[in-house]
Amino acid sequence: MNNQPVAVLDSGVGGLPYLAWIKAHLPQERLIYVADRKNFPYGEKSAAQVTQAVLETTQLLQDRCQPKLLAVACNTASVVALEALRQTFSFPIVGVVPAVKTAAQVTKNGRIGVLATRQTANSAYLSQLINDYCPGKSVFRYAASDLVELVESDFRPDSPEKARILGRWARQLQEADVDTVVLACTHFLHVEEDLKNLLPPNFQLVDSRDGVGRRTKDLLASQGLLAEPEDSAQSLDKPDLFYFTASVQWSVELRHDLEAKYAYFAQRFGLQLGGAWVL
Ligand code: DGL
User: One of 7, 13, 71, 74 is an active-site residue; which one?
Assistant: First the structure.
């Protein structure tokens, strides 16, 4: 038994749907979410820069929250930095593997689209997954940086930008005649329903929530790290928290703006805003 928190990390709000899985299936666990906003977007950085950012932010997490497990709910960080993380930290670390294997199992016409960040789309790791699981299938990779930016910065449900950008991606996927789309960037889960509504009903969208969630649960169980159930008064005392990294160089206005946006997201996912880690 271990009542330390489980941490979930992404560059922004992308990891929240992954956290939601963990929260729903492991309700006794205390959760800490960290949006490494100072280093957003990971997908436009080099592998070395992403690795450094993730190592630094995980060090902060360790110093401030002593997590018993870290779920890296970010495809980009998982693809480039998992090995370095596991060599540096002693707690168990779960990463996201783009759901290429699932896509290969469910496609009917053998044509798959992978929507990812630039870094993931161009990675050797993704090439290896495609070689391993998609022999004889046609796989198209797309670097959808505009979609990452949109989800992170403009999440008004009726945003005209959102309709424009998603409309363009829906057309591109249909032109490629794929029937299965891998959401290989966690940010895209926030627009999954909108994208689905723009695509014909035979399209399937797949992601890695189940795999990451089940792996988290199994690791906690097998290493004797599951939390003891607490009574409700105790758990009210220890809410699940949302932190974000921020730069000392940012203006106060920018930080307040982000605080307001993240407070909205935190509330939607049942977390309390813990505030900014200013670096
Ligand atoms: N959410 C992240 C992913 O799954 C990346 C977003 C970013 O570019 O920072 O890849």
Answer: 74
65 is catalytic: no
Q: How many Å apart are CA 138 and CA 8, to the nearest integer?
A: 33
- Which of 182, 207, 232 terminates a domain? The answer is 207
Average pLDDT over residues 64-71: 98
Residues 110 and 124 in one domain: yes
Torsional class of 86: left (φ above 0), alpha (ψ -120 to 50), beta (otherwise): alpha
Is the pTM value of this prediction over 0.90? yes
Is the Cβ–Cβ distance between 115 and 188 less than 8 Å?
yes
Give the pocket of ligand 1 (CB within 6 Å).
10-11, 14, 40-43, 74-76, 117, 120, 148, 185-187
Contact 186, 73 (CB under 8 A): yes
Give pLDDT tens digits for 209-223. Answer: 999 999 999 999 999
Instruction: CATH number of the domain at 104, please.
Output: 3.40.50.1860
Ligand 1 mutation pick, 19, 39, 42, max ligand atoms within 8 A of CB: 42
Q: How far apart are CA 40 and CA 42, in angstroms?
A: 5
Residues 243-252: tens digit of each pLDDT? 999 999 999 9
